[in-house]
Amino acid sequence: VEGVSSDELEALRYKGPLLEEQALIRAAEGGLSSPEFSELCIWLGSQIKSLCNLEESITSAGRDDLESFQLEISGFLKEMACPYSALVSGDIKDRLQKKDDCLKLLCK
Fold it and tell me: Which InterPro entries match (predicted)?
């Protein structure tokens, strides 16, 4: 997916383990079951929430329950008017199961 790179994460002052392009791709392949990818989602969500004054958030509390975590992310994306219907509609268990959808999440 165009627009997702470790250079962009570094520009956002991300200091986590996914600054290497291949690590980012591997984490996206693991999706929300990847602790590194989940932490990146939580970190990005906190950055966006503070900049955009959003009500919804993505918290680490939901990570242990994948479905709850997916619901948090979907609510957050809906508030942001996410254009990717695969990320915000349909069966919650089917969301963020593909690498491309995980990369789209990072693009949004």
Answer: FAM98
